[in-house]
Amino acid sequence: MDITSSETQQILFGTCTLLAANSILIYDHIATLPEEIAFIWRRPKMLSAMLFLLNRYFALLCNISSLVLNFVPLSEESCSEYILYRQLTYIFQAVMVCLIMTIRTYALYGGSKRLLTCMTIIMVALAIAVSVGSLGRFAGDLLPGVGCYEIYAKAVAVRLGLAWAAEMVFELLIFILIVYRICKTRGLLRLSLFTRRNTVDIIFHDGAMYFRAMTLLNIPNILTYYSGSVTIRSSLATLTSCLSVTLISRLMLNLHKSIDTGICSIPAQDEGLSLAVFTTGIDMQSTISTQY
Question: Half-sphere exposure of residue 195, counting CA atoms within 13 Å on the CB side?
């Protein structure tokens, strides 16, 4: 099979996005390491901190190892194992991000069991919708002469695109729930993307920034599966996954600057510049915070 100049450019594009994704992930680790030490390592290791560390370091180790293996000559059998490893990494990272967003929203709603049940049902339903007729049939073919570069037939690409679309739908649901909750407690006119006076402002601001950035990247990523050529499909997957992990880590760090328990804590009342009491439905206890 001969590779055209157009396909060569598309393969080069995929390689560049892979390098860019890992560069963003590694740079963010270095840039935020002082904050991580101050607000995570030097504070009590609550559930939020453990999720932060698992999400952050699992993604770092897996993506660096995938990057190295991508440039190492491998046999066809080893390539198949590497590609499976990379797909499982995408899945775990997506599950971790969705879990963190779910706990954050659950806490924002005051530990509502009803909401948690509904969100769990939706997550399971989306997972089933993606998996039906697809289990064990996500594998693509290796492009001859280009190492472990996998290409997908149209039918396989459609199912993979559906998985990314399902994650995007869940992120939209989370953002709608956050906006609804804050509008209900504070009013629409008090929402702002420019002020960060308290934890409520941080939750809304970071949620809006996360959703906007992921939407701008996820839509092109999904389109590569449905309308892209064979060699361009999945070329934005690693970048999308790494950006999601990076942004969710930033979101958690911002909350840990305000309160030790991070995503597990929500304001019991909004008092403008100060929040006197924080509650958590995760740890079933109250935490007193000082003004900041």
Answer: 10
Question: What is the rounded CA–CA span in Å between residue 161 and residue 179?
Answer: 27
Determine how many CB atoms are found less than 10 A away from the CB of residue 39. 22
- Per the CB < 8 A criterion, the answer to whether 231 and 7 are in contact is yes
Contact 169, 219 (CB under 8 A): no
- 3-class secondary structure for the chain? CCCCHHHHHHHHHHHHHHHHHHHHHHHHHHHHHHHHHHHHHCCCCCHHHHHHHHHHHHHHHHHHHHHHHHCCCCCHHHHHHHHHHHHHHHHHHHHHHHHHHHHHHHHHCCCCHHHHHHHHHHHHHHHHHHHCCCCCCCCCEECCCCCCCEECCHHHHHHHHHHHHHHHHHHHHHHHHHHHHHHHHHCHHHCCCCCCCCHHHHHHHHHHHHHHHHHHHHHHHHHHHHHCCCCCCCCCHHHHHHHHHHHHHHHHHHHHHHCCCHHHCEECCCECCECCEEEECCCCEEEECCCC
Residue 28, token pair as written in the block: 């963010």
With CA atoms as reference, report the closest residue to 199 among 107, 285, 281, 112: 107
The whole-angstrom separation of Cα 32 and Cα 256 is 13
pLDDT, tens only, 146-165: 567 777 778 888 888 888 99
* Matching residue, tokens 């900041």: 292
Task: State the pTM of this model.
Answer: 0.81
The predicted-structure confidence for 83-124, as pLDDT tens digits, reads as follows 888 888 888 898 889 889 988 888 888 888 898 899 888 888
CA atoms of 207 and 277, how far apart (whole Å): 22
**Residue recorded with tokens 């049940």:** 117
Contact 266, 190 (CB under 8 A): no
CA dihedral 170, 174, 180, 181 (to 10 degrees): 150
